[in-house]
Amino acid sequence: MESLLELERQYHEHLVKLTRKTGLTFAEWQLLVNIEHQIDTQEKLSALMNLNVSTLSRQLGRLLAKEFVTKVPADGKQGRRYFIYAATAQGEKAIEQLEEEFHKFDENLFRHWAQEEQNLLQILLNRLNKSMERLE
């Protein structure tokens, strides 16, 4: 389990470095991806990402300031919960760039692994995940 924790730490560290290249934090990138997938209101985003409203508002404010998203009021509704968020062209470009970077990262990570080894790792990780779920 310690090896998995160390691997997760290294993986997260690498993802943070990749997201910084686009001017985003890791949390902002996750939020931007959800907005691009039409999870477009604070209420939906808060529920999906399990974030409190103040944290979410700050993250959305940073995305707005960086011009990665836009917000428009929902038809006939008032209050911050009723804004619709959408990714801008700049936001979509950042997502595309990060997806390319993640793909390169995966290729480099597993370039010396045979396909059978990759498949075995996936099987073992799935089994470990199912075992963890049974413990809950």
TrEMBL record:
Gene Ontology MF terms in the entry: DNA-binding transcription factor activity
Residue intervals of the HTH marR-type domain: 1-130
TM stretches of this protein: none
Lineage: superkingdom: Bacteria
Gene3D superfamilies named among the record's database cross-references: Winged helix-like DNA-binding domain superfamily/Winged helix DNA-binding domain (1.10.10.10)
PROSITE patterns: HTH_MARR_2
Pfam families recorded: MarR_2
Coiled-coil features, chain-numbered ranges: none
SMART domains, alphabetized: HTH_MARR (SM00347)
Protein's recorded name: Transcriptional regulator
Source organism per UniProt: Liquorilactobacillus satsumensis DSM 16230 = JCM 12392
